Amino acid sequence: MASQKDHIENALNQLLAKKHQLEGEVREIEEAIGALAKVPALLEGGRPSVLAFEKSRPKFEQSQSINRGLSDKVRAYIAEYPYGEKIVVGPMIEDLGRKGVKGKHSSLYAYIHSLLKKLTAAGEMGLQYTAGVGYTRERPALYPKEPDAVLVHTEGLSVSVAE
Fold it and tell me: Does the pLDDT at position 88 exceed 80?
């Protein structure tokens, strides 16, 4: 004999199934609205209304939260990268994928390259770009790039320069 708890769980499961079914129907209706919004412009020979398409397109909020902190993960990967070696993006994407980053390979590749470009322009993490080679990570200079004459200690010395 079924208990009250079983009846409640059964009712809950039925409602969740109905909700899932209705969400599927709403998605189909939104797709139909988007398609119908394009028809008048196509019949007139023009471009479909971008505004109508944007309104009908569902928003994928989940994809934004899946890779939250992706730039932090890329920065951490670059920080562990050895100095003087070319930064290869393909293995970086594979490693980040093992750490839970999701997305199309091409999208991740483009994002990582844009981040590398921004970091290089800002002079962060010792990144440098060389045409034909790619991005490398260089050690920070220990001494300022001044001529040797400036670095020589000259106190107590008298130097005469003949002209």
Answer: yes
82 and 47 in a common domain: no
Helices (H) and strands (E) counted in the chain, each on its own, are 7, 2
Is the pTM higher than 0.90? The answer reads: no
Cα(81)–Cα(33) distance, integer angstroms: 49
In a domain, 149, yes or no: no
Strands of the chain, DSSP E:
127-130, 134-137
* Residue-level pLDDT at 155: 61
In 7-29, which positions are buried (b, 16+ CB within 10 angstroms) versus exposed (e)?
eeeeeeeeeeeeeeeeeeeeeee
Alpha-carbon distance 147 to 128, whole Å?
A: 23
CA nearest 134: which of 94, 78, 80, 95? 78
